[in-house]
């Protein structure tokens, strides 16, 4: 079973709109951070790797050697700039947590595929944290600026992307459901924000479902294959 949700362009009152407006100055400040020598060397190595034939974003984001620089603005900008594929792996093989495959399809108001959209996504680790902040980068703006599990993908001709990751944990000592944050930029420059929740999460109670309906949050059934890997499928209508 797939979940379907509609997202309204530049949602008034939706968290992504507020974060974008309030954090612009902080993000600008973050981009001016001075990188320690070891951080600069790692990011420079990633630049060279992505410039080489055959290298892709998955190979960098899922490489444990680069985990310590995931929070640095230049590294995140690098991943965004080189995002060309509709499929990406954003966790290392050693990352704790249950493996999760996320397939998300974007469609226009008329049901046609929204191809060529850039999708940014991020979430917590299995313990419900956005860190650890291995590189000790000063935290500027909101969690969307430094979450360790993040990535970018571009929707294919069917309007779809696929993410290989782990199931995020809910925030410790908080009632917020487990979730994946989304930010979508369409070729026509429209911007959309949203979240994906998990239908089997005990925190997704009736009150949470009512909140989700008002905020255009997708609540997706979770499937489990014979090997124990989890998967969710979401169709998101942009109107």
Q: How far is the first residue's CA from the last residue's CA? A: 22 Å
**Class by SSE composition:** alpha/beta
Shape: globular
| Mean of pLDDT | 85
Number of strands: 11
List unreliable stretches of 5+ residues. 8-29
Tally of individual helices: 5
Q: What fraction of residues sit in β-strands? A: 25-35%
Rg, alpha carbons: 17 Å
Biggest sheet features:
6 strands, mixed
Order of helices and strands: EHHHHEEEEEEEHEEE
* Fraction in helix: 10-25%
Write out key terms for the chains shown.
239 residues; alpha/beta; 6-stranded mixed β-sheet; 5-stranded mixed β-sheet
Describe how the helices and strands are arranged:
Layout: E1 3-7, H1 15-31, H2 37-51, H3 57-61, H4 73-81, E2 87-89, E3 99-108, E4 118-123, E5 149-154, E6 160-166, E7 179-185, E8 191-198, H5 206-215, E9 218-220, E10 223-224, E11 230-238
Structure description:
The structure is a single chain. The chain has helices spanning 15-31, 37-51, 57-61, 73-81, 206-215, and strands spanning 3-7, 87-89, 99-108, 118-123, 149-154, 160-166, 179-185, 191-198, 218-220, 223-224, 230-238. It is of the alpha/beta class and 239 residues long. The strands form two sheets. Strands 1, 2, 3, 6, 10 and 11 form a six-stranded mixed beta sheet that branches. The radius of gyration is 17 Å and the shape is globular. It starts with a strand and ends with a strand.
């Amino acid at each position: 079973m797939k979940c379907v949700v509609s997202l309204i362009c530049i949602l008034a009152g939706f968290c992504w709109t507020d974060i974008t407006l309030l954090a612009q100055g902080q993000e600008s400040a973050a981009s001016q951070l001075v990188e320690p020598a070891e951080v600069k060397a790692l990011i420079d190595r990633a630049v060279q790797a992505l410039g080489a034939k055959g290298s892709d974003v998955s190979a960098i984001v899922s490489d444990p050697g680069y985990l310590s620089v995931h929070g640095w603005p230049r590294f995140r900008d690098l991943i965004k700039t080189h995002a060309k594929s509709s499929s990406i792996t954003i966790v290392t093989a050693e990352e704790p947590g249950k493996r999760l495959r996320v397939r998300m399809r974007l469609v226009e108001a008329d049901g046609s595929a929204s191809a060529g959209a850039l999708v940014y996504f991020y979430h917590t680790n299995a313990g419900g944290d956005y860190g650890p902040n291995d590189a000790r980068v000063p935290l500027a703006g909101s969690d969307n600026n430094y979450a360790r599990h993040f990535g970018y993908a571009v929707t294919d001709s069917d309007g779809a992307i696929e993410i290989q990751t782990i199931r995020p944990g809910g925030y410790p000592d908080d009632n917020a459901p487990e979730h994946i944050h989304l930010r979508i930029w369409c070729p026509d420059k429209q911007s959309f924000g949203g979240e994906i929740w998990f239908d089997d999460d005990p925190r997704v109670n009736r009150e949470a479902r009512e909140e989700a309906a008002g905020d255009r949050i997708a609540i997706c059934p979770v499937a489990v294959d014979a090997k124990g890997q989890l998967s969710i499928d979401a169709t998101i209508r942009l109107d």
